[in-house]
Write a structure and sequence with these properties.
Protein name: MYND-type domain-containing protein
Strand content: under 5%
Family: Belongs to the sel-1 family.
Radius of gyration: 34 Å
CATH topology of the largest domain: Serine Threonine Protein Phosphatase 5, Tetratricopeptide repeat
Structural class: mainly alpha
CATH architecture of the largest domain: Alpha Horseshoe
Number of domains: 7
Largest sheet: 9 strands, mixed
Keywords: Metal-binding, TPR repeat, Zinc, Zinc-finger
CATH superfamily of the largest domain: Tetratricopeptide repeat domain
CATH class of the largest domain: Mainly Alpha
GO molecular function: zinc ion binding
Distance between the termini: 77 Å
Number of strands: 11
Number of helices: 48
Organism: Adineta steineri
């Protein structure tokens, strides 16, 4: 263990301490079993176990056990039960009503202790780095020993475990003859395993384990090998069986698990024992437990590639389980024939036409033909037997021709080990290769380049889960954003969830709703369900019901199972609103808006649109006036810009240039990290590679002596990977040990321990750093925050905030927050006192006012000031503010204009019009156009009598349907300049939602008149019996009109005159200087129309 870091040793000492409880808890179970069952004795027999399971456990809904735990209980041998099983049985078993008061009190006390033990065990189990610093270790050690002594253990015996000698090989009575025989049997068993004679191997390993006088470490090896052979034997006998549950103690996997656990008990600090346990859990699909075991193995063998691969694989599968991919109807296996039949049913596409296209594609796009073959082999077809190896072969063939769909699917099969060797690192490279290709098909320019958006989404998942890469939420958000922009529904859903919870991006419920709606329009069933819940929260009952129904219809099993509960919640909310007074409703809405506005606790290293570079002149001006904070921002920005000057000077940097770049970036991070907003993901990846290279180079050159270059690289590494909390916390422990005078490592360490909810450790780290520099106000602030969140002594927290305020500049960005936090501390003291204290209320109001005054001193870039504590204090002490809160916030115009669905519609419309105009005006340019016959017939109505209004939101964008008996009202926001084969428009309804509209079957000679005089910008129209069509080429929704008489134009007086081409406001005065026709209400709108909506495409055509 001497080569294992102290913090990892601390973790495994705590594990050994918890293991001490097993014997005690087993005896406690037997005592309770006798007490609860009239004096019966638990004898560890199978009969006893089966009777207990049948008569007690199955009748108790509170006891939830996995299949492995169920098997161990029915087997009856309590020696096989782990802590989770024991605590589940002890805490949830029904007590007989015959117990006396003393017995009940004793059981209650025991249950309290058991709950504490279970919670500590769970905390350790989910500790990803398996690294516990001395402060946390001492705290947990104290808690655990108190629990164990209370349960009957001996204090002096527990102290022995605390010494490092506990990991030394124990002095055992060794029988050399037996040792040699055991080693011989082990060698024979190993050879039998290699020869695939697994039963023989198990017999040989078993004989080796029972020989006396053999060291525990040797016996651990024998049990580990036996576990491996049992798993191999199971896989040999089970063949292609997908059975995961264990229901028989004779199951080879169950016995393999017991063998692996025995190896782990005999040698707790051997990586392979934990690895073997993880392998069994992975085999039975319990990947959360597998991850825990693999993380332990990795902590003991950090360079072991097999462990890292197994950990990556379980993380990948576990993330799929958490996303409930097994319930997603889109991911269920279907043959090509079944897929084509489904396409015909939903879209009316003739399967024979698709197959004809498959046969023709070889001449036009050979790599595309290889992809089609690969899909047939992967899924099976009428004349093709499913064969993953052949599928991988053809995907690889297409990949060699730079086919994005081929590369992506080869990566997908490589990730899962289907037809090719499983390799997560290779899959990552293939995803990156596919994501680097153009988003439009290289041959068929009007359709997406399949595989690009899918690969971008896969990369987002990789960075979100930390599979084969460091977990990095801002990078995940970047890839989700790219995939969303290129048409991915799942990516839009995942990005929405990040905005919904404020993970990796700033929390923004409006943006989340917008993205959920986009994902839902693209057919994502998960987004539909989440959107329904969000709309229910907003009391938009009609749309909540519509989207929940759509989620159910799309095959979302979770939605289907929860349909009754959702409808009950909807009914209850309606009833509450109907029965409540307006003041109560306004108060409830106000509190809801307060809660929604709160930012989540977590990393501040997020994707942000804020760039401080443009504020340099402002910072310089304030610095010249004496602002210390502005001077820091200037200094940080100067180092940041120096770093990027070095980076952009050359594609490759020499060692000196690398050191200079890392030094300048580290200096920026030391002074003020928030200014370092890296502009692109590629640049971030390049920076990470440089930092990793400098770290590695320094590890080789400076094994003994410290260096400035090494310290700089460590600062950069920690900041760049702050999303991987546990990893960075462990890394920073090494940094503090190596550079005990570097205050910035203490600052970063205190911060990350706070994010991990390890407040006592954060306080300890802050105090240690303050010994280096007692006046370092950044650490003073983090110490105050940790004391407040620890919630043990709020007076101490208040005093810590005051110490920070005395040391920090008056315009420091955390000064107002400190006052608001102190006000929250005073409020908490009010609650603790349980009585109204006018003096304390005055203090709260005074402190709150000090925070508001402090805001007036803030630099302009930090305003308007954002503070959860301010929001909470204001809501608690200003009831009037809640009554004045708007129940529905006003529509965010900027958010509407940047709605990705709207942007995409207008961009693609203008691209289409530009291409068709070029085809008309350029004899050397050709553009193939055509149309498909409508799937359903639109009935024409001649009047509005009896028609109901419908909005675009209420029309299902995933299904082709004619809405008979309805009328859709809208205005034209994008016009057509051509009319063959149809007139293409973009319309916007009264709720500011927009969609494409195609008009067919009009006299072609009237095309110019219709596009220039009738269907013009700002004109309003009504569409009777609107037909929502799914485009046959792009599978996107549009409003199709096959009879122009179903369009009734509204009067000229209703038309929006001189409409702004960007926001739609009337009487826009500014005119485009080039085309002289497009109007804008402001310069900002003109810039947005030019840059975002690509006005340049149609500017000269107007």
């Amino acid at each position: 263990m001497t080569n294992i870091p102290t913090n990892n040793r601390n973790y495994f000492k705590l594990e050994l301490l918890i293991a001490r409880s097993y014997v005690i808890l087993r005896q406690l179970f037997k005592t309770r079993y006798s007490l609860f069952n009239g004096g019966k004795i638990w004898d560890d027999s199978t009969t006893c176990g089966k009777n207990f399971w049948t008569n007690i456990v199955t009748k108790n809904k509170k006891i939830n056990l996995t299949s492995v735990q169920k098997t161990s209980v029915t087997n009856g041998n309590s020696n096989d039960w782990d802590l989770t099983t024991l605590t589940a049985l002890l805490l949830n078993s029904d007590r007989p009503k015959t117990l006396n008061k003393t017995q009940i009190q004793q059981l209650d006390n025991e249950d309290k202790i058991l709950t504490e033990l279970r919670d500590i065990r769970n905390k350790l189990a989910h500790h990803a780095s398996k690294s516990i610093d001395d402060v946390e270790f001492n705290q947990l050690w104290s808690e655990l020993t108190t629990i164990l002594v209370a349960l009957g253990d001996i204090d002096s015996e527990l102290d022995k475990i605390k010494d490092d000698s506990v990991f030394d090989t124990r002095t055992q009575s060794i029988n050399e003859e037996n040792v040699q025989e055991a080693l011989r049997l082990n060698a024979l068993g190993t050879q039998a395993h290699k020869d695939r004679k697994f039963s023989d191997a198990i017999t040989l390993f078993t004989k080796a384990t029972v020989l006396s006088g053999v060291s525990n470490h040797d016996r651990a090896v024998f049990y580990s090998n036996m576990s491996s052979s049992r798993l191999a034997l199971y896989e040999l006998k089970s063949g292609s069986s997908n059975k995961t549950e264990i229901d028989d103690p004779r199951d080879h996997r169950y016995r393999a698990l017991q063998d692996a656990k025995q190896a782990r008990i005999l040698w707790p600090t051997w990586w392979k024992g934990h690895f073997r346990v993880g392998k069994v859990y992975a085999t039975i699909n319990e990947h959360e437990k597998a991850i825990n075991s693999f993380e332990r193995a990795l902590a003991l063998g950090p360079t072991n590639n097999d462990v890292q691969k197994a950990l990556d694989n379980s993380r990948l599968i576990y993330s799929q389980q958490l996303r409930q991919e097994h319930l997603d109807p889109r991911l269920q296996p279907k043959t090509m024939d079944e897929q084509l039949s489904e396409l015909q049913q939903k879209m009316g596409v003739n399967p024979e036409h698709v197959r004809s296209g498959h046969s023709l594609i070889k001449e036009i796009d050979p790599s595309g033909a290889d992809v089609v073959k690969a899909h047939k082999y992967e899924h099976g077809d009428i004349d093709v037997k499913q064969d993953y190896e052949q599928a991988a072969k053809y995907f690889a063939k297409a990949a060699r021709q730079e086919n994005a769909e081929g590369i992506y699917n080869l990566a997908r099969l490589t990730d899962r080990g289907l037809g090719v060797k499983k390799d997560h690192n290779l899959a990552l490279k293939l995803y990156e290769q596919a994501a680097s290709l153009p988003p439009k098909h290289p041959i068929f320019k009007v359709i997406p380049n399949l595989g690009v958006a899918e690969a971008e989404h896969a990369l987002g998942l990789r960075y979100a889960e930390g599979i084969s890469v460091h977990k990095d939420l801002p990078t995940a958000a970047y890839w989700y954003q790219r995939a969303m922009e290129h048409g991915s529904g799942p990516a839009a859903n995942n990005l929405a969830l990040m905005y919904l919870h404020g993970t990796g991006v700033d929390k923004n419920l409006e943006k989340a709703e917008q993205l959920l709606e986009l994902a839902s329009k693209r057919g994502d069933p998960n987004a539909m369900l989440t959107l329904a819940g969000l709309l229910l929260h907003k009391n938009d009952f009609k749309m909540a019901k519509i989207w929940h129904d759509r989620a159910c219809e799309s095959g979302n099993i979770v939605a289907q199972m929860g349909r009754n509960k959702f409808e009950e919640m909807l009914s209850d909310k309606k009833q509450f609103i109907n029965c409540s007074s307006p003041n109560i409703l306004q108060m409830v809405d106000g509190m809801k808006n307060v809660i929604d506005s709160l930012k989540p606790k977590g990393a501040v290293y997020k994707t942000s649109n804020k760039s401080y570079i443009h504020d340099y002149n402002m910072f310089n001006e304030y610095a010249n006036r004496g602002s210390i904070t502005a001077k820091k921002m200037c200094d940080a920005l100067e180092h940041y810009m120096e770093a990027f000057n070095v980076l952009t000077h050359s594609e490759t940097l020499a060692e000196k240039e690398e050191d200079l770049f890392v030094h300048q970036l580290a200096q920026c991070y030391r002074i003020e990290h928030i200014v370092a907003q890296i502009p692109s993901i590629k640049m971030r990846q390049r920076i990470e590679e440089i930092v990793d290279h400098v770290l590695h180079r320094n590890s080789l050159e400076f094994n003994v002596n410290n260096s400035q270059s090494d310290e700089d690289a460590r600062i950069c590494y920690a900041v760049l990977h702050m999303d991987s909390h546990a990893l960075v916390a462990k890394f920073l422990e090494q940094c503090k040990e190596k550079y005990p005078k570097s205050i910035h490592f203490f600052e970063l360490s205190a911060t990350v321990h706070g994010w991990l909810d390890q407040y006592e450790t954060a306080i300890y780290v802050a105090n240690s750093g303050l010994k280096v520099d007692p006046d370092y106000y950044e650490l003073l602030y983090y110490k105050a925050v940790a004391l407040r969140l620890l919630d043990k002594d709020l007076n101490e927290a208040i005093e810590a905030y005051r110490t920070f305020l005395a040391a920090a500049p008056k315009d420091h960005r955390k000064v107002p927050e400190s006052y608001y936090a102190m006000a929250c501390c005073y409020i908490a003291r009010l609650k603790d006192n349980g009585m109204i204290d006018k003096g304390m209320i005055d203090i709260v109001e005074k402190t709150y006012k000090e925070g508001e005054d402090a805001e007036k001193l803030q630099l302009p870039c930090f305003l308007p000031y954002d503070s959860n504590n301010k929001t909470l204090v204001k809501s608690m002490f200003d009831a009037k503010s809640l009554l004045n809160t708007q129940s529905s916030p006003p529509i965010n115009l900027k958010l509407r204009l940047t709605d990705p669905h709207r942007v995409k519609l207008i961009q693609e419309h203008r691209e289409w019009e530009a291409k068709t105009l070029k085809a008309i005006n350029d004899p050397y340019y050709s553009l193939e156009t055509g149309t498909h016959k409508p799937g359903v017939k639109q009935q024409t109505a001649k009047s509005f009598i009896g028609l109901k209004a419908i909005s675009l939101k209420e029309m299902d964008p995933t299904k082709e349907h004619v809405y008979e008996g309805y009328v859709l009202s809208a205005k034209i926001i994008e016009v057509a300049y051509t009319w063959s084969p149809s007139i293409h428009l973009v319309i916007e309804d009264e709720h500011l939602d927009c969609e494409r509209m195609f008009i067919y079957d009009f006299p072609q000679e009237q095309g110019h008149y219709l596009t220039s005089k009738v269907y013009t910008i700002g004109s309003k129209l009504n569409i009777i019996n609107p037909y929502l069509r799914i485009g046959r080429c792009d599978m996107k929704p549009l409003i199709r009109v096959d009879d122009s008489s179903s369009i009734i134009m509204q009067s000229e007086s209703e038309r929006v005159l001189n409409m702004c081409r960007c926001c739609g406001i009337s009487n826009a005065l500014n005119v485009c200087g080039k085309c002289k026709q497009a109007r804008y209400c402001t310069k900002q709108c003109q810039t947005m129309d030019w840059e975002l909506y690509k006005h340049k495409l149609i500017c000269k055509k107007l």
